[in-house]
Amino acid sequence: MHEMSIVVSIVEIAEDEAKKVLAERISELELDIGTVSGIELDALNFAFESVKYKTMLKNAEIKINIIQAKSKCEDCSFEYKTDNVYNLCPKCNSYRTHIIQGKEMKVKSVTVD
Ligand SMILES: [Zn+2]
User: Fold this and answer.
1) Most buried by CB count within 10 Å: which residue of 15, 84, 102, 109?
2) How far is the CA of 81 from the centre of ligand 1 (A)?
């Protein structure tokens, strides 16, 4: 389950942030997760629940912002919502499209006590 290794690195980032301000506990963690990031939210939540009791996130509330994926067409510059990494432009049918948003998996904010 690759979500477990993702959670371990998220916890490290959050704890580093908290230590910078000499905090002992993290009360809230906010994450941005794109719809084509490849992350299963259920698996992510499960992984958090299994590791957080031994970290500074023990009592933290985990907020997840879902970022809707968008693609851009290189031929006609059209931007559109998508749920697939590989997709055709709905306007001109070009396959030369790329994801401009929705692959992210990042720690947006860490709130400490
Ligand atoms: Zn196009």
Assistant:
1) 102
2) 13
